[in-house]
Write a structure and sequence with these properties.
Elements (H helix, E strand, L loop, with lengths): L6 E6 L5 H9 L17 E7 L2 E7 L16 H9 L2 E7 L6 H10 L5 E7 L22 E2 L8 H11 L6 H5 L15 E6 L6 H10 L4 E6 L6 E7 L2 E5 L3 H4 L13 H9 L3 E7 L6 H13 L3 E6 L6 H14 L8 E3 L11 H12 L5 H14 L7 E8 L4 E6 L5 H15 L7 E6 L3
Parallel strand pairs: 1-3, 1-4, 4-5, 5-6, 7-10, 7-11, 11-12, 12-13, 15-16
Antiparallel strand pairs: 2-3, 8-9, 9-10, 14-15
Helix pairs in contact: 8-9, 12-13
Bound molecules: guanosine-5'-diphosphate (2 copies).
């Protein structure tokens, strides 16, 4: 049975440029472009593809046509299309600004769980770009500027759309509305984890304990690097892929020797996974090799959870010493949660998957521009930067969350750390690294 392609619904008031966008994406003239507002059209479905992914574009021209009682005119068919769509594009007209109809639609779309993008159309030139931020107030994330007529920004938009589609192997399950269930073989993997640490710190013991937990259903898959095997666990926190686990699952891994998890191998697994679990042997303290691994994880920009394993072997004084040592030697990983664990007895192990899940969630977080600006402006009002002013803030990227501050002058590093702390606190971005960039503008 062939999987149905995912669907992308295009909605918006009349005359914002939906049909023009559909034509731009499909390179065809199937959608009818009308200059008259309020022309009701049938819902059209058109096949499209981008970057090797096929999807069905649903042009809901008939949704919310002009008139006063907008909600009453929501057509059932279009409502259905929107509920079913994997991605919804709310097209708005930058030359007009936020209008009542946009707000009504945004309110309906905010209740959706799937991805929704605000497409700020008619940005025919760069000068118009600042106008898009008004639409951040719709509460659906950063508006994406395009000009459907000229094709400006439409490639970037399609990259975002394709990135938000369910993974190709998950299309069947997703389009039928089925939840990925424990034990199902074709579910999507939420995120991947590399378990790294020096030999004998207890990585295998820890991993086997995770696998041994009742609720975890295990699948072994071919890994991302040659000769490697990954293990997927179905857990309460979703399906998690542990990378390069062959050496961890084998009990008594003498055949491979203690060098199985050589530094090179560990570094590869860091690079091919979303998050890292850095296991440290509490009885040995933080060694230089631990520090090197930590630096490498930090450089990769991935979130990390630090595990102080064999914790049960320490007395109170040793516990205190170790905590100071972690704060000191791993100070650059301030954002990383530190878990005290005994893989042998199971102490604290249940905290591991939730901590990884939270780190991954923060790492993928998208903060609406309007809220971000409120927080940055409040921080700035409470403590203004020396001789400078932040005019605007946006989140440019996820993985990790990356923020751009538009300012009229350079901002000193201490001030950036202050803003970073405020953003972290307010949005509870605790366990992920974040990046802040400054762009000078005007003055
Ligand atoms: P729809 O009712 O939302 O499907 O809107 P249409 O695609 O029919 O476009 C409405 C009008 O806006 C038409 O006159 C289009 O030529 C014009 N339009 C669409 N996209 C753009 C754009 O990117 N820039 C400008 N300047 N006009 C556009
Ligand atoms: P790996 O090389 O990092 O995979 O380490 P192993 O999982 O093979 O563990 C090395 C040794 O440490 C084994 O003898 C384990 O039994 C022991 N070990 C692992 N975790 C703990 C723990 O939490 N407490 C204690 N006391 N020993 C542990």
């Amino acid at each position: 049975m062939a999987a149905a392609p995912p669907t992308v619904a295009i909605v918006g008031r009349p005359n914002v440029g939906k049909s023009t966008l559909v034509n731009r994406i499909t390179g065809r003239r199937d959608a009818i472009v009308e200059d008259t507002p309020g022309v009701t059209r049938d819902r059209k479905e058109i096949e499209a593809d981008w970057a090797g992914r096929s999807f069905t574009l649903v042009d809901t021209g008939g949704w919310l046509p002009g008139g006063t009682d907008l909600d009453a005119k929501v057509t059932r068919q279009s409502e259905h299309a929107i509920a079913q769509a994997d991605v919804v594009l709310l097209v708005v007209d930058t030359t007009v600004g936020v209008n009542d109809g946009d707000e009504r639609m945004a309110a309906l779309l905010r209740r959706r769980s799937g991805a929704t993008f605000v497409v700020a159309n008619k940005v025919d030139s760069q000068q118009r770009e600042p106008d898009i931020w008004e639409f951040a107030a719709l509460g659906l994330g950063d508006p994406v500027p395009i000009s459907a007529i000229h094709g400006r920004g439409t490639g970037d938009l399609l990259d975002l759309v394709v990135g938000a589609l369910p993974p190709a192997e998950d299309q069947l399950g997703h389009s039928s509305g089925a939840e990925a269930e424990a034990g199902q073989d074709d579910g999507a993997v939420a995120f991947s984890v590399a378990i790294v640490g020096r030999p004998n710190v207890g990585k295998s013991t820890l991993f086997n304990r995770l696998v041994g937990e009742e609720r975890s259903v295990v699948h072994d898959l071919a890994g991302t690097t040659r000769d490697s095997v990954d293990t997927v666990l179905s857990t309460d926190a979703g399906r998690i892929r542990f990378v390069d686990t062959a050496g961890l699952r084998r009990r008594g891994k003498e055949a491979e020797g203690p060098e199985y998890y050589s530094l090179v191998r560990a570094l590869q697994s860091i690079d091919s996974s979303d998050t890292a679990l850095l296991v440290i042997d509490s009885t040995e303290g933080v060694t230089h090799q631990d520090q090197r691994l930590a630096e490498r994880i930090d450089a990769a920009g991935s979130p990390v959870v630090i595990v102080l394993n064999k914790w049960e072997l320490l007395d109170d004084e040793q516990k205190e010493t170790l905590q100071h040592q972690v704060a000191d030697m791993l100070a650059f990983l301030t954002y990383a949660p530190v878990l005290k664990v005994s893989a042998l007895t199971g102490l604290g192990v249940h905290k591991l998957l939730p901590a990884l899940g939270q780190a991954e969630e923060a790492y993928s977080r998208r903060i609406p521009t309007a809220v971000l600006n409120r927080v940055v402006q409040a921080a700035q009002a409470a403590h203004p930067p020396p001789n400078a002013k932040i005019q605007y803030a946006t989140q440019g990227a996820v993985h990790p969350p990356t923020f751009t501050l538009f300012a009229n002058r350079e901002l000193p590093p201490t001030y950036l750390r202050y803003i970073e702390r405020k953003i972290r606190e307010h949005f509870e971005l605790g366990p992920t690294p974040i990046k802040i960039r400054v762009r000078r503008r005007g003055g």
